[in-house]
Amino acid sequence: MSPRKPSSEVLTKEEIVNAARHQFIAKGFEKVTMRGVASQLGCSHGALYYHFKNKIELFYAVVEKDFEHLNQLLKEIINSTKENHQKLLDILICFMKFGLNHQKQYEFMFMMKNAEVDSLAHEAATKSYYQFEYAILQLKNQNTEPSLIYSAFVALHGFVSHHCGYVKEYNEVKEYAEAHALFIIKGLA
Amino acid sequence: MSPRKPSSEVLTKEEIVNAARHQFIAKGFEKVTMRGVASQLGCSHGALYYHFKNKIELFYAVVEKDFEHLNQLLKEIINSTKENHQKLLDILICFMKFGLNHQKQYEFMFMMKNAEVDSLAHEAATKSYYQFEYAILQLKNQNTEPSLIYSAFVALHGFVSHHCGYVKEYNEVKEYAEAHALFIIKGLA
DNA sequence: TCCTCTATTGACCATTGGTTAATAAAAAGT
DNA sequence: ACTTTTTATTAACCAATGGTCAATAGAGGA
């Protein structure tokens, strides 16, 4: 009723993003409503617009963290002490594992074609790709054809995106994924 | 004003689908409104619900034809008189060409993750995949590993879906596509 | 105590997908 | 030719949505 809450319950951006993340993952972009998020937080939907310009900006705040997560995973592999060929395999597997164990997030990051959202996510996706390219170049011959690396990346992406939504988790297609990794390495040679 | 039009202008399903197709391709699923389609047809939006249960059913009527189109293209290659290895290459190229010259349609067919729409499109997509698998089996060794064919298909899909929306037409990435086709054939060996 | 800034409310708007009673035109029956 | 039935359409209606904004209660400083 009162137009402002006591200081102990003021909204923080982080609380909003967390609530929104849960709902986006559970229901997908379209079916999440600002009112629904607000109600989970116990505030009016208008309040959200004080912290985020619109639904898309709130959504992107969620997605941004997922890119950080993936980039972190890849970085760890690159900095590990394993042998190069194994690292390469690990990277391919890691990407697929991430995609299929965080499917909704992967969709948001690499598969959403919504024009408004996309302009934001595309930049981050491109960054992820460069990291991938850089890793491959380091792990394989330095003068690997760029087009081969590109083919490897899109083949990887194809695997994840094709299974997204039709399996529950990575383990269900573990064998296929490993075969696909070998398929890609064969193509890279 | 009158509750029924003279017989010369009664709506047909086909007219509706054509108008809808244009709008879906131009604006994407979410941004097309039943009112918008109705207004292009010069009728009230309620009239559309007489012919189609809801927006999704109207949408699927559009997509169905696109699957027929792609299947037809693939069939023509298979029935051609070329040599097997060339046919295989043709199929791979044809798929990418279709995807990138009819990007919105490809999105609708293979990339849309909308839960409601998807249940319908998924069946048709699976059918397309079986046709692909059958063709590869015929063109390559009959006992090609199924997992290899699967990898080939998802690699192909990955190429299209990765470029979808970021290039205007197939010709812009023709060289990459041809390299990718060779990459896939290498993996299939 | 007064003032300013901050965060929140709730009423409001236009637009959307979808439903439905009313009904005019067409078709079928006689 | 008249009546009845069926068909296709309208327009008014509903609940929900994303988004805007004036009003205002609380917090913190002077």
Automatic annotation (TrEMBL), chains A, B:
Keyword Lipid biosynthesis: no
Entry-linked Gene3D superfamilies: Tetracycline Repressor, domain 2 (1.10.357.10)
GO terms of molecular function: DNA binding
Every HTH tetR-type domain range: 10-70
DNA-binding region: 33-52
Superkingdom to which the source organism belongs: Bacteria
Keywords: DNA-binding, Repressor
Keyword Repressor found: yes
Pfam families per record: TetR_N
PANTHER family for this protein: ACREF/ENVCD OPERON REPRESSOR-RELATED, ACREF_ENVCD OPERON REPRESSOR-RELATED
Name of this chain's protein: TetR/AcrR family transcriptional regulator
Organism: Cytobacillus horneckiae
Source lineage: Bacteria, Bacillati, Bacillota, Bacilli, Bacillales
